[in-house]
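Q: How would the structure tokens look for this protein?
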Amino acid sequence: MQRSQPNGDEFDGPPEFAPRRAIVTTLGTLTPKKITWLWPDRLATGKLNLLVGHPGESKSLLSVEIAARVSRGVPFIDTRDVANPAGDTVILSCEDDPADTILPRLLAAEGDPDRVHVLEGIEANVPTGNGTVETFRRGFNLAGDLKQLEEVVTNSRNPRLIIVDPLGAYLGGPDVDSHANADVRAVLAPLSDLAARLGVCVLAVHHLNKSSGQTAIHRITGSLAIVAAARMAHLVCRDPAPTQDADPRVRFMLPMKSNLTGHVDGLGYTIEAVDGVPRLLWSPDPIQMTADAALNPSTNNRGEKTQEAVTWLQEQLRDGPVYAKELNVRRQKAKISYFAYKEAKKAIEKSLGQSISRKANFDGEWVVFMPTDESDAQSDGHPPTSRIPSNSTNDSPIGAFNNLTVQFDLDCQKRQSDDLDGRLARGGIPSNSDDPEYDAEAEQQAHLAVQADNDDGPDYSSMADAEADRERTEITAYEAEAWARA
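A: Here is the predicted structure in token form.
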């Protein structure tokens, strides 16, 4: 087969050896377009969108609710004044049965079943050796069957939505590694192109991994290329901090990622059963919570703990500067975590516009102080010499303190803090330190002081309390080393 070359010459050979040329688009030749939406500011038309969450959190039920609204042309709960033209939905679902699950849910949501189509698989007629033809069936996969999906979509009356539930089941089988960026992009790029070409919204349902302490987009199962390819992503979850009388049927739909619009609030809904079939009842009140906060509920009360630490630290420094080592002992006895102390100290320093910890003199120890009036807040950021703790054992002249200047590099501080957090998370506790403030004897006294308050042994009200106390004990040695860097 002969193929034309860019210069008009003919090329005769395999396609992979044909001369290549760049495809370039000059922006000046384009006409600006507006983003079109299936669900305004939440699900974009012509794009890949994600709906992610743990199993059993109603992701599939929510996707059917969306399909029902599209089938009837019913506006969405938060955009009642925006028209939602009636259209068709194609569903890829390998987990829910069309007859006993998808259809009843669609009817409960008052959807039109004639406008929702389930693509159950692919079949082919294969000639056999004896002159007959046998029909073979297999599951659909995005890697090799996009042509068949496009045929189904274009044959519907007004295609508007494609639901892939779950995405991981359709990535292409054993030949595609869902954790490999190149493999995932090779599958999702053509799918995104199909969405753009046909002008439909692709909504992929996906799961979360079991990790914790990570941002929401890093909690998505498989390669990061999955969330990177999506233009909009939403988390479906329960209330991460329910009250005692909270309704267990309540779910949140929270924005996780948006490349196409500004910030939008989350939505809430309740799952109710009608004749044994679940359906959604939307709440009119917005949910002002981020996906990151929902997936890391332990950080939600950080502000309260930090404020408690601020109050405690201000009381400790009310009568004058305190040696950092002594403050460490007091902190442990008060059961204030190092992390809460660090955040509290940052908050105080930000409000004062200066650091509140310095070395008392060249050869002395670190002190933490609280300026009480304008005369205390010296221009160089140091505590006034008259308020240095009087029990200092350092013989260096106090005048040296006045000449001491320390340049704090905020970026360096952040790197040190990040490194500290990372090593603590990995359990790496150094056995010694070059830090001038580190004192093993003082640290041992801190341990003894804590133990003295519990002569009969700790009385834990829960296993969580016991675990927290164990973690405090394990990181204490490193806290002392890192105290001056706080």
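The chain has a mean pLDDT of 78.

The chain is about 30% helix and 20% strand.

Upvote if useful.
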